[in-house]
Amino acid sequence: MDDEEYYRKIKRINKENLYKQIRKKKSDIWKNFEVTGTLNKKEKIHDTVTALAESDATGETAKIFSEIRSTMKIPMLTSIWRILADSFDDLDLSWKAVKPLYKTGQPEAALNRLQSDASFPNLKPISLEEIEKIGISNEDLINIKSILKAYNRSNSLNLLTQSALVTDEIKNYVPYPIVKISHKSISIPRLLPREEISDLVWEEILKINKFGTNIPNPGIATIFRHLAYWPKLLNLMHIQLQIAQKNGEISIGANSVSKIAIEEGNRMIQLRDENAINKMSSYARNTIIQYVNGPFKCARIVNIGTALYNWLEKAK
Prior knowledge:
- This protein has 316 residues and is an all-alpha fold.
- The chain has one domain.
- The chain is 59% helix and 1% strand.
- The protein is built from 15 helices and two strands.
- It has a two-stranded parallel ribbon.
- α6 (106-117) runs antiparallel to α12 (249-268).
- It is globular and about 55 Å long.
């Protein structure tokens, strides 16, 4: 399958909701396709980020996307919402179920706890001079940190709040003091489509994407794809994460993130919209469960993304 045919297939996946059908039915047409990131002679889908693009959303779906961004104070949506948008009802009910949490200010307080209490990997310090030597300008560094910060906020809030949708362990609700934040809207560089990313850079993305996983071909985290503008930095990140993987820091961090998310989900369960929960499809519930469950999915990306941001933020 050449690149042109691949992109036609990806376009069909988005247009005809085949992504959802693959996961639900494992249809004969697609069962021989392997989810991966490699371009080679075998028929494989490169990227698991085949969900509806924000720029392609229209009508009521676009309105919900806009409301999510505004409520969460984020410049873009991570893949969970775009995957749920395979069905408007799934997107609508999932957002209605979690939206009341944000009205209380508790997700922000939970995020504050996560950022202070989780055992994020402490990567080897890097200097601004070292960063400059690999061709990263001050403007580049600002953009890179903005990307990491945006994904970390989005992924962390999704992990914390959506954990409240999948638990039935009701505990006494103890509200945290409201955390006031001074939020500035930021703009980040656009997410490059696959055809604008060279195979060599794509391979570097795939290498980074494997850290903290327990399966050979994990879905490609968009946070790493968004950093494709700076391949030399990706290589440096790979070296740093390799060290953290070997000394066990990535595993420790991801487990701590997952543990806090479970505790916060249980704490905020009484704030969710039960009526919306009861109307959610099994597909939507299972999608969210897979997203928040354990240290190998969203928790690993929160863990690694936060470690990378802290690493660059401390550079002097």
